[in-house]
Amino acid sequence: MSDYWGHDRVEPVAVGPPRRRMNRAERIREERRQRKRRIGRGVTVVLLIVVVVGAVFIGSKLWHTLFGGGSDFAGDGVSDVVIQVHDGDSTTAIGETLQDANVVSTVSAFVNAAENNAAISAIQPGYYKVRTEIPAAKAVERLADPQNRVGKLTIPEGRQLDDLQDVKTNAVTDGILSLISKATCVDLDGERTCISVDALKNVASTAAPSELSVPDWAMGPVTELGDDHRRLEGLIAPGTWNINPSAQPQEILSTLIGASATQYAQGGLLDTAAAMNLSPYQILTVGSLVQRESTPEDFAKVARVIYNRLAENRTLEFDSTVNFALDRIEVATTDADRGQMTPWNTYVRPGLPATPICSPSQPALAAAEEPAAGDWLYFVTIDMQGTTLFTRDYPQHLANIELARRNGVLDSAR
């Protein structure tokens, strides 16, 4: 047995080149390398754990923010707040605005409550009064209710900055500044606040034109009028605007003037002015005269009369420019009124008035940009239906005026 095990047993066979024995220094270096590798693997594992945990935390928070996880608010809310819906906002974007203002608890709560709600799908950009910490369904109801829209400003065509009083009826027509003031009124938690007309006038008079976003093409005429608030006349275009009820007067006027300048430019005012060898401000002023002196069917003819009279260095002699400085409406002005020396009175002032005399409509501006062909120098409305006669002949014009008197058009209340 001993011979069998001692002589016939198979010995293990080494594979590869023979192993060299390391000396002491080499063994120490090898141990250090092994230790660094173990430490490196440990750090990598720790960092991986941190990344995974962080991702889970962030993802969880984002999911909670967008899709819920918390309970909806209950009750009637805490306090009134105004939020803004921007042009092009999706339902989710509105929900984010509401969550940021602490109106709803989560975006998802609002999105779910607003699902298939036609009023929310068609909501107009603007400012809306809601309450903080209300159920999402109530937030939807409030936004869908037109009564909760605030800061909506509608400026009719042909309005001037100041209020106008009709000499015959004493009726007062709100000017643009009054319309702005009323649009800023809002009731928050039972307290009504408005920006006053006086506050708006003060800013219109004293703020630097650059701080009011006055366009470059209007900077000269605006500066020349000094501290008269009417220097901004015509620079706020008619139309519907959204203004922030909580904004300061300067911000409100600057926003309106800046947006109006953009609207005028997009409408081709600057390009047309260059083609006509006039300034955009001159065309805007002509448009305002056209607006006040005639009805739409005669806009282009009145524009031609203005350009013809200017070309012949004649005074325009428009009663509308007399009334402008007096803040009133009157068809037949008096000799005393026509003799007043103001920057706008075209009976005593050559050329165009110092500023536009109202905010002209797009058709009136279009007429100023493309007047009708004709040699007329005079016009007068002869009946209550608005029939207007145009002529170049002065005796014929006098006859037309007499016809207007007989028809009661030129009757004065004074």
What do you see in this structure?
- The chain is mainly α and 414 residues long.
- Among the domains are: 80-150, Dna Ligase, domain 1; 164-376, no CATH class.
- The chain is built from 17 helices and twelve strands.
- The strands form five sheets. The chain has a three-stranded antiparallel sheet with strand order 1-2-3, covered by helices on one side. The protein has a three-stranded mixed sheet with strand order 6-5-10. Strands 4-9 form a two-stranded antiparallel sheet.
- A hairpin with a 2-residue loop joins strand 7 and strand 8.
- Helix 13 (299-311) packs across helix 16 (362-369).
- The longest helix is centred in the first third of the chain and has 44 residues, at 24-67.
- Residues 1-20 and 45-69 have low confidence and may be disordered.
- Its EC number is 4.2.2.29.
What structural keywords apply?
414 residues; mainly alpha; Dna Ligase, domain 1; 3-stranded antiparallel β-sheet; 3-stranded mixed β-sheet; 17 helices; elongated
Strand content: 5-15%
Major sheet size, sense and barrel closure: 3 strands, antiparallel
Which structural category fits the helices and strands? mainly alpha
User: How helix-rich are the residues, as a percent range?
Assistant: 40-55%
Over all CA atoms, what is the radius of gyration? 38 Å
Give the termini distance in whole angstroms: 151 Å
How many helices? The count is 17
Written as H for each helix and E for each strand, in order along the chain, the element string is HHEHHHEHEEEEHEEHHEHHHHHEHHEEH
Query: How confident is the prediction overall: mean pLDDT?
Result: 87
Shape: elongated
Number of strands: 12
Uncertain parts: 1-20, 45-69
Strand order of the largest sheet: 1-2-3
